[in-house]
Amino acid sequence: MTNRIDARFAALKAENRPALVTFIMGGDPDLATGQAILEALPQAGADIIELGMPFSDPMADGVAIQLGGQRALAAGQTLRGVLGMVEDFRRKDEHTPIVLMGYYNPIYVFGVDKFLAAAKDAGVDGLIVVDLPTEEDDELCLPALKAGINFIRLTTPTTDDNRLPVVLKNTSGFVYYVSMTGVTGAAIKSRGAVGDAVARIKSHTDLPVAVGFGIKTAEDAADIGRYADGIVVGSVLVEAVRTSLDNGKPTDRTVSAVRDIVADLASGVKRARA
Amino acid sequence: METDGLNSLRNGPDEHGRFGIYGGRFVAETLMPLILDLEAHYRAAKIDPAFAAELSDLSTHYAGRPSPLYFAKRLTDHLGGAKVWFKREELNHTGSHKINNCLGQILLAKRMGKTRVIAETGAGQHGVATATVCAKFDLPCTIFMGATDVERQRPNVLRMKMLGAEVRAVTAGAGTLKDAMNEALRDWVTNVDSTYYLIGTAAGPHPYPEMVRDFQSVIGTELKEQFFAAEGKLPDAVVACVGGGSNAIGTFHAFLDDASVKIYGAEAGGHGIDTDNGHAASMTGGRPGVLHGNRTYLLQDADGQILEGHSISAGLDYPGVGPEHSFLHDSKRVTYAPITDNEALEAFQLCTKLEGIIPALESAHGLAQLMKVAPTMDKDQSIVLCLSGRGDKDVESVGNYLGLL
Exactly one of B39, B120, B210, B355 is catalytic; which is it? Predict the structure, then answer.
């Protein structure tokens, strides 16, 4: 079967608009509601889904995603449970690409080969593992590529021209450009610099380039979506889950809170190049 | 890198920063160029005689090295076995071995043109040592410390503030060393251009475990010379406490290839190794995983979530350990054993009453291990403890435990 990520970017290129990539934490605020949020995303306008694998020590994440991970873990989420979410999702949606995002230790403890086989079976299309730089490609990146799962690499403002080819070498699916030096949810310092960086990366690769970290509104999406092939939004969605809660419990607003923001962001990517 | 022959245990790490399967560089891409740059600067500094000369001068005149090797006669008589010796790292400026590493790294930070320093601290000993060198070298510094540790190590918090450091209390998780390190990494990833991350233990991404070990190895090198001068031979055993394990690797490294020297590391056994999440003995009670930039033994659940652990000693209250210790544990060169909170408290009191030396609670774990081993050894044998820190910071919390307050 064709790679879902490649197919989705090809279709969007034909539409001349960037992809809306949405991050949610798998199992936040609880397992059932987390599943409902996941399943609401495509219709709300998400083109690609990043599903967070919660970790006790998310060193690259700001407070919003830290808390989302803690809620999911408190609800009993596990790596196996996140794979189960994808499996259930695939029964209803064969086309929307799903990228799992998180940290290496739970995968390492699960067993790399066992994890890759289970992820492939569940219908996972790609992985973003924050604490596996290219220097550690033997750990998971190369086995994942061999198993037919994309390994999406983060490039950052500190990745200079000498290093960029090294980082891009085993990247597949798309390149995730981190718009700033910082943790998820902080503010972008310079829009202009992001545009230059995307152009710089594109001079090194034919892969689509998605921009994430610090994108919060439809205006941000429209603005950055003019030159990026995708925009990634996470913290605002995870924060919307939190503010919808009543005493830590989901309410009837929880799913719709996320869905409304995604719909608004989708309007942003649609007018990015209009 | 050491070159003691093919079979030496002192050859690590390899060019990927590995000690066997342990170590490595498990960091976000944002930090990767920084640690490569740090490694390049460290390699250059290591072979620069001017760097060595400056560090040596500071060690002598600022930190007070060499630290004495002391024969603990009353403790020896009390235990009735091997002769007991202390390598007196607690007499260093700032009160622990931490200054050895901080002096080395602050010189490196200066060479690299960094204008701000951050550090994590558990017991506050590393925070104090960092704040001290930052005062001396006129660099602003921010110390990340778990909120729980801020409470139980108040005197050190005050020292850091007086030295001009900003102390940020971290409330995430259990508010201990692990959480402080997460927050320091988040700060570093945000302030990449200006900031030097001065890691206090022999853990984290390569080259930190190697670099911190190198700066701490002065402990074992001096000890070896001093012991030879006193007794004309090698000691029969050396002991140190292990949290992240910087004083331990600094003590052990000089002896790794001396097969006649038994080496013991005391882990924090907390309430006991069988108590779920009630100890911080990552090698005795954990298994390999990846956290804070390196693969090493970690306390974790079946899903790979990191546990908080527990120790009475803030400095040992960490669910991981430096990767070289994991390697030495697997290779069985070093015997790592858990010491409970109560055993450490007992050793703390005994040392204070018999020798007139109040040890840090961390070092008291090492002493408790020594108290188990020394009586099993012959009277003509010798065992040396790295007395890594002094216990002034602990008198209030120990007083509380003992009902003296």
Answer: B120
Residue of B nearest to A155 (CA): B29
Query: pLDDT per residue over B122-163, tens digit each?
Result: 989 999 999 999 999 999 999 999 999 998 888 999 999 999
> For the segment A63-116, what is each residue's pLDDT rounded down to a tens digit?
999 999 999 999 999 999 999 999 999 999 999 999 999 999 999 999 999 999
Amino acid at B371: M
pLDDT band at B1 (very low <50, low <70, confident <90, very high): very low
Q: Is B178 tagged catalytic?
A: no
pLDDT digits (tens, 9 = 90+) for B75-100: 999 999 999 999 999 999 999 999 99
At residue B63, φ and ψ (nearest 5 deg) are -90, -25
Correct CATH for B66-95+217-401 of 3.40.50.1100, 1.10.3230.20, 2.60.120.10, 3.50.50.60:
3.40.50.1100
- A214 in B contact zone (CB under 8 Å): no
Looking at domain B18-60+98-212, which of 3.40.190.10, 3.40.50.1100, 3.40.30.10, 3.40.50.880 is its CATH number? Answer: 3.40.50.1100
Q: Reply yes or no on domain A4-271 having CATH 3.40.390.10.
A: no
- Phi, psi values for residue B342, rounded to 5°: -65, -40
- Which residues lie closer than 8 Å to B141 by C-beta, 6 or more apart? B116, B117, B118, B119, B130, B131, B134, B164, B165, B166
Q: How far is A1 from chain B (nearest CA, A)?
A: 31
- Considering only residues 185 to 204 of chain A, which have any Cβ-Cβ distance to chain B shorter than 8 Å? 186
